[in-house]
Request: fold
Amino acid sequence: MKVSLTFDFCDMTIYDNYLVVVIKEGVNITPDHNSVLLEVTEMYFSDKPFVYITHRLNSYSVDPKIYFETVKIENLKGFAVVSKNYQAKINAQIEQMFFTKPFEIFTKLDEAIEWAEDVISKS
Reply:
């Protein structure tokens, strides 16, 4: 399965075991954005484990409080941040403290995908 979705704040690509999200430039991600994630996960991963991969190609901000809601998604088994940008990786390390499920930071998308597949195979 590969489905591409576009929203006003991001582009999502849905795969069998994970989704890859690219947030648009200048967006401030808040807990309100979780409603879109919940709708997508209910539609494509209703009773199936998945991993969320954010591919940070653009500059945007994240309110860490979003993770208090995101972590409540039962079938979400892991969260990965992919970026080559040093500051984005530092920000991700701070965000990691608010997330109680597996959370990894990668430089390359294929590394995050490999990790996601491994997390799903162990769940």
